[in-house]
Amino acid sequence: MAARNIFYAQSGGVTAVINASACGVIETARRHRRRLGKVYAGRDGIIGALTEDLIDTSRESAAAIRALRHTPSGAFGSCRHKLAGLEQDRAAYERLVEVFRAHDIGHFFYNGGGDSADTCLKVAQLSRALGYPLQAIHIPKTVDNDLPLTDNCPGYGSVAKFIAVSAREASFDVASMARTSTRVFILEVMGRHAGWIAAAGGLAADERHNIPLVILFPEIAFDREKFLAAVRRKVRKFGYVSVVVSEGARYADGTFLAAAGGKDAFGHTQLGGAAPLVAQLVKENLNYKTHHAIADYLQRAARHIASKTDVEQAYAVGKAAVEFAVAGKNAVMPAIRRTNHKPYRWRITEAPLQRIANREKKMPRNFITRDGYHITGRCRAYLEPLIQGEDYPPYKNGMPDYVRLKNVAVRKKLKRGFAP
User: Fold this and answer.
1) Which of 27-36, 37-46, 91-100, 269-278 has the lowest mean pLDDT?
2) Does the N-terminal peptide bond of residue 343 adopt cis geometry, omega within 30 degrees of 0?
């Protein structure tokens, strides 16, 4: 049987290590040339498949592909485009088959979070419904760390490391100024429904660093008076406090603190900034001087301080996706299984997409302290291995030396276009 080509695409918000997964896919596929054809990447995710805008990764040198391992963001472009069900969006699925058939694509690798797992499952179902032979394998990626059936998600360990370091360093700064200036520093982090990133801020404090923290999790309903009392207590005891607030922090009725109105392309509520709201609340009610920061893209782009564990796991799931394809797997995701806590050990396992798509893994209640404002020892034991090790990129003239691929387009074969 002739070797068939691979379609690989990146989806949703990118991370510091998603390109390490791309590196794992491409390098592993090149080692299986007898079984697999070329790796075609979708320019701007699934949009590239729908518009027949494919990138020929075989035109890149081995050195350039290897450099993806230390380069942040999405090397081929990403998108937020969610396919509806086959009956609702049949024209789009038929277009996918048309493009895949034209370019002899037999393997679909989608590198993203929960919505991408859903898309990947639909593509696997498409193969059966439309009679086109296609293997669909989801490659996990999300800084939110909310995919089920995997111990953790590639991308999370590095953003957790960045937030933990930032919270500690900013706290040192506030402690220096608290007597005559700022008493409360607020750091807003990502996390729409799950507080995994906010939890990482708890690592700023440990036995050697007695840093006063208040963490606002999406899983714990925000109580205005209780929060203000906690801030007041910390300031009276320590002279200052650092607050880590998830963008998804919400009131008891489910309303986000920072709902800005509108929806994104995946149908998620747009969030407009919890940190300034919390800062204003503290200023108006406690009259403490505050400063706030919104980590935003910085937290997920910070490859210079990536977790070595995270880089290794991101590469491993990309590599495993290709090996699953060679083994004939379909509608599955390479998942990370923790096999030992101390010393930390992990391995890759196989997880069915039907149990992953459209599901979220939130913080367990026993990972959050009874008062709802910090992490427990059990949570710390879970988090600490994920931020271990440094994997610095090469530097040139004092700056990280990241790669920009040529991204040579594959010649189009279809006469008609398509507007997604």
Assistant:
1) 269-278
2) yes
- Is 310 a residue of the active site? no
Of 115, 144, 310, 391, the catalytic one is 144
Cite the beta strand spans of 123-240 per DSSP E.
135-140, 184-189, 213-216
CA dist 81 and 116 (Å) reads 9
Question: How far is it, in rounded angstroms, from Cα 409 to Cα 56?
Answer: 6
280 Cβ partners below 8 Å, 6+ apart?
Answer: none
Task: Specify the CATH class of 4-142+305-359+389-400 in words.
Answer: alpha beta
Structure tokens at 146: 């909310």
By C-alpha distance, which of 40, 45, 35, 44 is closest to 7? 40
Reported as a single tens digit per residue, the pLDDT across 43-98 is 999 999 999 999 999 999 999 999 999 999 999 999 988 888 878 888 998 999 99
Domain ranges in the chain are 4-142+305-359+389-400, 156-303
How would CATH label the architecture of 156-303?
A: 3-Layer(aba) Sandwich (3.40)
What are 410's two structure tokens? 């594959």
Residues 250, 223: Cα–Cα separation, whole Å: 9
Query: Is the pLDDT reported for residue 268 higher than 80?
Result: no
Residue 260: how many other CB atoms lie within 10 Å: 10
Q: pLDDT grade, residue 262 (50/70/90)?
A: very low
Q: Which of 107, 115, 172, 108 is nearest to 146 (CA)?
A: 115
CA distances from 368 to 95, 296, 380 (A): 47, 23, 10
Q: What's the token pair of residue 415? A: 């006469």
Query: What tens digit of pLDDT does each residue of 221-250 get?
Result: 999 999 999 999 999 999 999 999 999 999
In this structure, are strands 135-140 and 105-112 parallel, antiparallel, or unpaired? parallel
Q: Using CA atoms, how far apart are residues 359 and 350, in angstroms rounded to an integer?
A: 17
**Residues counted in the chain:** 420
10 has which bridge partners? Answer: 111
